[in-house]
Amino acid sequence: MCPLCKAGASEFEAVKAAKKKGFDTNSDLYAIIYSAVVVVIVAFLLAGVSSVLKPMQDANIELDKKKQILASLNIKDVADAAAEYEKYIEFDYIVNSKGEVLPTKKGDGFAVENDDINEDNLPLYKANVNGAIKYIVPMTGNGLWGGIWGYIALNDDCNTIYGVYFSHASETPGLGAEIAGDKFQARFTEVVKDKDGKEIVKKVYEENGEVALTVEKGKKADAAYHIDAVSGATLTCNGVDDMFKRKLAPYYNYLNNVKVAGEPEDLDDENFAGEDAGEETLGEDIEGAFETEDENVESETGDEQVTEDASVQVNEEI
After folding, report:
1. In whole angstroms, what is the distance from residue 49 CA to residue 43 CA?
2. DSSP secondary structure string, the chain?
3. C-alpha to C-alpha distance for 248 and 228, rounded to whole angstroms
4. Residue of 164, 159, 267, 168 whose CA lies nearest to 209
5. Most buried among 38, 72, 203, 271, by the most CB within 10 A?
6. What per-residue confidence (pLDDT) applies to 70?
7. Average pLDDT of span 57-74
8. pLDDT one-digit tens code per residue, 283-306
9. Which of 146, 143, 138 is nearest to 118 (CA)?
């Protein structure tokens, strides 16, 4: 019975809602399909944008790397880092821990990623700063919260430090992050004096080839190898110290060879150092030099043999 008009239930007729034609937009299936379509469309759009921007991203990464290398040469805040890099970096190549130069063309050393650096794949940069030769060694390590990396530039004696650059992924601001600051990095190039007034320049290697460069808090007896650590950043500075020991040691044999005997002549080849080095490799030049030397030896041996044969023949005739 209707509570308002007191009509009986038999006098009412149930009205059924008409079924909607097409897909039910209120169903769970519709929500799932709609979401899936939106996700696929957005994914394709993002992939397209990423592929379009990748060349620019790669170019920016390369430019930043060049800025870091230049910073180790104390060349900072330049307007055109790419041009400055070409101006100062004569070439980059790859050596190994045995002191050998690997088959290399210009750009190969720069192309080596940090994760790919090992004892058989050591990128090295040669720079010319106002007529003075510098050698730049890349380094990677671990800080307190993440990765740390940098470059150290050595003078032409392959030992004394000309400049450094360090950076980090996630060290603590005001503490470990200070390794990227000018104050800490200046400690590597400051010239101190001993008790006799003699100037002491910071160095990397001892005479026996051991990496003696150390980052520790407080003054040490041998100032030539000691860098004062950042206060309150012991673990980060320990990471920097460990990075020196592990990453600089494999370069000693090659740098010592350069110091004692000079660079291989092939490194000064115009084609290798210039723009036309695309298809010519350092390894081919070295191999050619050895082949030429072998030919000379064979020629000399042949001449000696001819002389000996002639002498024998004369003796027999007599």
Report:
1. 10
2. --TTT---GGG--PPPPPPPPS--TTSHHHHHHHHHHHHHHHHHHHHHHHHHHHHHHHHHHHHHHHHHHHHHTT--S-S-HHHHHHHHEEEEEEE-TTSPBPS--TTHHHH--GGG-BTTBEEEEEEEETTEEEEEEEEEEE-SSSEEEEEEEE-TTSSBEEEEEEEESSPPTTTGGGGGSHHHHGGGT--EE-TT--EE--BSB-TTS-B--EEESS--S-GGGEEEPPTT-HHHHHHHHHHHHHHHGGGHHHHHHHHHH---GGGG-HHHHSGGGSS--HHHHHHHHHHHHHHHHHHHHHHHHHHHHHHHHHHHH-
3. 19
4. 159
5. 72
6. 97
7. 95
8. 444 444 434 444 444 444 444 444
9. 138
Q: Note if the pTM is more than 0.90.
A: no
Please tell me the predicted confidence (pLDDT) of residue 17. Answer: 60
Average pLDDT of the chain to the nearest whole number: 83
Tokens linked to 15: 């009205």
Report which residue type is found at 63. L
Would strands 226-228 and 161-168 be described as parallel, antiparallel, or unpaired?
unpaired
Region class of 174: left (phi > 0), else alpha (psi between -120 and 50), else beta: left
